[in-house]
């Protein structure tokens, strides 16, 4: 492993890390977009240099989505949506520095955990992931959606309504199996579906602009940036929870197509369940919420690389792009990859670990400087944020139609806030909807030719476990069944 590390290699990782910090922190720019651009730049480089820079962008870019999520309530990526639930309330209370400090520490631990797991568990975990059926992937996403109503809203029914709206939006576009148009209403620009970036920027960014204008409150106490001392010992009190949620992130990341959004919601739900008496309630600025979200979605990095390297199946959008880097450089991922290309494997591992320490340094030294953005008066900040919303949504596909969609989603998001409907479940449903649709229909298609379709679909061990978990979450959140379950538990 040491043979792949030299000054040039470390420099490439650091350059990629700095780029990842700013790309992830700017609303509208994504890690996957930055990685795709790097493929075109690095295809003539040595594969170790290319992988070094891309891993720097990947590791730090996933963390930096939390910066805009905490400061201006616009998640830099779908996996940072959960961070807004507690990060932005902390920022509004003048605790932005503490929120970023916590996000940095646990992003570091989560990333390191996932990469160490990659080195130790690549083969065993990939074997487990290989056993997942199409129905299992559908149920994993379904389980994630059943949890979001309970973790992001006091009213579970409102959470499920948000999920249903997100699923409807995800269905817009071409049918993945038949190729026919769905819910486009004759609008040509909707044929390709709804892009995630305009939705994220609209529901979180522009909705916040509209909310501030509607309330007409300056809230000067919110805008003061307190230079507060944060005790590392106090922050590290949640290390046990961090290891648990990192394990969730790593395992979910190893399942192709699941990734950070699912992992962060499941981890957040587990943190809420395990933390009996938080100092501040979840959703109002609980540090444990940031711990769970950031450690899990960063642990997904190592997890997502496992199926890519051992099965040539990307775990998320970024690893799909990294897979193209391998092919460009003549590398063939698969079951024999680690044995046949140990140097390339250790290059990825070394670059990832170096990027973890770069994340720690950039998060502690550079991110707090960005915190000064909240000291800007709102009468100046709101036009700036609105401009970023327009630029970010336009930059996605370079078309004004996405800007119009952003305005529409912003207005819907504003109404949802007014009537206490959570936005986070809607975004997760949008992200997972297409995957759920294609996997469920493929599972039904495969089962239809079996002797017993029901057993074919639900007879596998993982399918049974995920079905029971989803059913348990639903029953425990329905008022009349929840009362019955509580009575049963108290009797015991």
Largest sheet: 2 strands, antiparallel
Number of strands: 2
Classify the helix fraction into a percent range. over 70%
Low-pLDDT residue intervals, each spanning 5 or more residues: 218-225
Strand order of the largest sheet: 1-2
Rg: 22 Å
The overall number of domains is: 1
Shape: globular
Number of helices: 23
One letter per element, helices H and strands E, the order comes to HHHHHHHEEHHHHHHHHHHHHHHHH
- Residue-averaged pLDDT, rounded? 77
Global structural class: mainly alpha
Tell me the strand percentage band: under 5%
Cα separation of the termini? 54 Å
Task: Summarize this structure as a short list of keywords or feature phrases.
492 residues, 1% strand, single chain, 2 strands, globular, two-stranded antiparallel sheet
Describe it for me?
This protein is mostly helical. It is 74% helix and 1% strand. The chain contains 23 helices and 2 strands. It has helices at residues 7-25, 31-42, 47-72, 81-92, 96-130, 134-152, 156-170, 196-215, 220-223, 232-235, 239-253, 259-274, 287-311, 317-328, 337-340, 342-365, 367-370, 378-397, 400-418, 424-448, 453-458, 461-477, 479-491, and strands at residues 173-174, 181-182. β1 and β2 (181-182) form a beta hairpin. The radius of gyration is 22 Å and the shape is globular. It starts with 6 loop residues before the first helix and ends with a helix. Residues 218-225 have low confidence and may be disordered.
């Amino acid at each position: 492993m040491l043979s792949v590390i030299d000054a040039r290699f470390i420099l490439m990782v650091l350059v990629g890390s700095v780029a990842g910090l700013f790309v992830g922190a700017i609303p509208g720019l994504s890690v996957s977009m930055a990685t795709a651009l790097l493929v075109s730049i690095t295809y003539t480089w040595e594969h170790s240099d290319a992988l070094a820079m891309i891993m720097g962008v990947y590791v730090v870019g996933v963390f930096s989505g939390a910066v805009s999520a905490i400061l201006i309530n616009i998640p830099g990526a779908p996996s940072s949506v959960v961070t807004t639930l507690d990060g932005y309330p902390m920022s509004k209370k003048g605790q932005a520095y503490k929120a970023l400090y916590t996000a940095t520490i646990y992003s570091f631990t989560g990333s390191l955990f996932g990469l160490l797991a990659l080195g130790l568990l690549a083969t065993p975990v990939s074997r487990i992931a290989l056993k997942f059926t199409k129905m299992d992937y559908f149920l994993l996403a379904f389980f994630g959606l059943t949890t979001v109503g309970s973790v992001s809203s006091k009213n579970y029914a409102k959470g499920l309504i948000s999920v249903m709206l997100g699923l409807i939006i995800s269905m817009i576009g071409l049918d993945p199996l038949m190729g026919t148009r769905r819910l486009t209403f004759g609008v040509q620009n909707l044929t390709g579906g709804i892009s995630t970036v305009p939705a994220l920027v609209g529901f979180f960014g522009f909705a916040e602009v509209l909310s501030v204008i509607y309330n007409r409150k300056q809230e000067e106490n919110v805008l003061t940036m307190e230079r507060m001392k944060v005790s590392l010992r106090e922050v590290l009190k949640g290390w046990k929870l961090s290891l648990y949620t990192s394990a969730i992130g790593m395992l979910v990341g190893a399942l192709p197509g699941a990734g950070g959004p699912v992992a962060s919601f499941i981890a957040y739900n587990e943190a809420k369940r395990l933390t009996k008496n938080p100092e501040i309630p979840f959703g109002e600025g609980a540090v444990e919420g940031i711990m769970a979200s950031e450690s899990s979605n960063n642990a997904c990095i190592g997890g997502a690389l496992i199926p890519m390297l051992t099965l040539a199946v990307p775990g998320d959008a970024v690893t799909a792009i990294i897979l193209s880097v391998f092919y460009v450089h003549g590398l063939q991922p698969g079951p024999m990859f680690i044995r046949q290309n140990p140097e390339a494997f250790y290059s990825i591992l070394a670059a990832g670990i170096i990027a973890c320490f770069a994340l720690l340094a950039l998060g502690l030294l550079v991110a707090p400087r960005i915190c000064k953005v909240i000291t800007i008066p709102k009468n100046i900040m709101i036009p700036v944020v609105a401009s970023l919303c327009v630029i970010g949504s336009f930059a996605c596909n370079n078309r004004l139609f996405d800007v119009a969609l952003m305005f529409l989603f912003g207005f819907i998001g504003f109404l949802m806030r007014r009537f206490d409907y959570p936005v986070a479940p809607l975004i997760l449903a949008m992200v997972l909807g297409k995957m759920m649709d294609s996997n469920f229909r493929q599972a039904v298609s495969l089962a239809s030719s079996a002797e017993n379709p029901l057993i074919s679909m639900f007879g596998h061990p993982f399918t049974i476990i995920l079905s029971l978990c989803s059913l348990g979450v639903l029953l425990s959140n329905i008022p009349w069944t929840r009362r019955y379950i509580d009575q049963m538990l108290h009797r015991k």
